[in-house]
Amino acid sequence: METGTERRSTVTPEHLDIMSSFIAIADTTVPAYPANATIIRNDGWFPDIDLKDLREAMRLDGTVTHERLRLATVDAIASINDEVRAWKAARCAEGYADLASVPAGQTDGVSAHMLRYRRAVYNLTRADLTEQYRAYDVTKTGANDAEVLEATICESRRNVRWALNDMRGVPRSTIELI
User: For 163, which of 35, 54, 79, 116 could close a Cys bridge (C-beta 3.0–4.6 Å)?
Assistant: First the structure.
C-alpha cells in the first residue's frame, strides 16, 4: 500500500546495465620518478634496465605506478637471469666479461644479445603487469576487454620465449594442441 509520501521505483535490466557500468577513470599521467630511481641494477654481466625506457617502449601509462613497475621489472630480471643461467655460465667460461662482449650482430650499434635480453625483460614485465591489472575492471566492458588483455599477455610471453631462444641460438618453435 502506497501513501502519498512513498514512491516505488522500478529498476529495469537496462537500468542495471547502466548502473553496473560506472567505473572510476584512472589517472594515466606518468608519475614523476624519485631521484636516481629509474635504473634497476643487474648482476654486472647482464645490462641494467632503465624504467623510463621500459615504460616508453611498452607504452605503460600512469595507471602502472612506479613501485609496481619496479617490482615487476625486478622479478622479470630475476626470472630471466635464472632461465639463462647455464647459457651465461658457458659464455663466462669462454672468457666473456659481460653480455655485450659476447659476439653477436649489431643493430644501431647495439649487440643483438643486448637487444634481445631487454626485449625479454620488457615483455615479461608487461605480461605480469597486464595479468595484475586485468582483474581490476569487472564491468561488462571489462569482461569484453579481458579477451584483448589475454592476447596481449600471450603475445608478450611468446616474445620473451623468442627473444631468449634467439639469444641462446635455440630454434623457435610454436606448438599448439588440437
Answer: 116
Distance CA 57, CA 5 (A): 60
Helix axes 66-83, 112-133, angle to 10 degrees: 130
CA angle 84, 89, 90 (to 5 degrees): 100
**DSSP calls for 36-73:** T-SEE---SSSPPEEHHHHHHHTT--TTS-HHHHHHHH
Higher pLDDT, 62 or 14: 62
Would you state the pLDDT for residue 10? 59
Residue 132, pLDDT score: 80
12-23 per-position pLDDT tens digit? 555 555 545 545
CA 51 to CA 33: how far, in whole Å? 9
Tally of residues, the chain: 178
pTM of the model: 0.74
Cβ-based burial of 168 (10 A; exposed 0-12, middle 13-18, buried ≥19): middle
Residue 106's beta-bridge partner residues? 111
